[in-house]
Design a protein that fits this description.
This protein has 285 residues and is α/β, with parallel strands linked by helices. It contains 14 helices and 7 strands.
């Protein structure tokens, strides 16, 4: 018999990998796509008459407008602005105002000061820094896949091959069709469109895996524990099928009692320490 408190004591505070913090390749691609235009704008750095120089530059190279939003850490091509002079929606892909109005935009947003006063020395370097900052917003999305990626690495380490004996993001209906299983008790007679993170097929079993990691607390944890407990109980009635749950993270501290209830009734709930101790190999042997 496993002891819950011992098991729970191994929960980790983070599983952030090296690529979690910044996707530099994505940053480089974004900057590269407007590098020519940024280098053209570089000619304005230190300008003593930036409005005139911007006018001349815009007349000759109107495409420089497309890199303006990034200088303000904005990803969209249209920027809204309002003040006592009116309400404006500036389009930086398909110019919809005069050069004079775009000069007003540059002046009022502070971009003219940034460039002309030599606050920065190179707009390509500046844009790269802005992209790094913007990319940090993507950590939430990357974080959502960290546990999934970690579990998959152990699945591969156990010798399983994708689309041969393990599968990603498979719907319950696909499992029924592929291996002639009746999982109606799990799907509310076909009403629920349940999808599992992974499915492992051995000679005599189909293992449906869910993975998650909670670095912080929240109301979702209690509901997750309850629903997975129910799913595990309903799975027991299906011969040749088992539900497996990999979870971890100190966020569970706030929902520890609910997790313990699930742990006490579910044999196939595991954490990262279990992965490290070869639980995948034990399941498939």
């Amino acid at each position: 018999m496993r002891d819950f408190n011992t098991w729970f004591s191994n929960f980790k505070s983070s599983i952030s990998d090296y690529g979690y913090y910044v996707d530099f390749q994505k940053v480089y691609r974004k900057v590269e796509s407007i590098k020519v235009e940024l280098n053209i704008l570089n000619s304005l750095i230190g300008s003593t008459d930036i409005e005139k120089d911007f006018d001349n530059l815009l007349a000759k190279y109107p495409e420089i407008l497309k890199c303006i939003p990034l200088l303000l850490a904005v990803r969209i091509n249209e920027i809204y602005a309002i003040d006592s002079d009116g309400e404006f929606i500036y389009n930086f892909r398909k110019p919809n105002y005069t050069a004079t109005q775009y000069k007003i935009f540059m002046q009022k947003t502070g971009l003219f000061d940034l460039i002309s006063k030599h606050v920065i020395n190179n707009l390509v370097d500046y844009a790269t820094g802005v992209e790094v900052g913007l990319d940090s917003n993507g950590r939430k999305n990357r974080g959502g896949h960290l546990m999934e990626n970690l579990v998959e690495s152990y699945i591969k380490k156990a010798g399983l091959v994708k689309d041969k004996n393990y599968f990603k993001e498979m719907y319950l209906s696909e499992i029924e069709k592929n291996w002639k299983l009746d999982l109606s008790s799990l799907s509310n007679k076909g009403e629920a469109k349940k999808r599992f993170d992974f499915v492992i097929k051995t000679s005599d079993m189909v293992y449906a895996l869910e993975t998650n990691f909670y670095a912080s607390s929240g109301s979702k944890l209690n509901e997750t524990a309850r629903s997975y407990k129910m799913l595990a109980q309903e799975s027991k009635s299906v011969k040749g099928f088992a539900f497996v749950w990999f979870t971890d993270g100190i966020g569970w501290k706030s929902a520890k009692n609910n997790l313990k209830e699930t742990f006490d009734t579910m044999d196939s709930i595991y954490n990262i320490a279990d992965l490290e101790n070869g639980i995948i190999e034990q399941l498939i042997k």
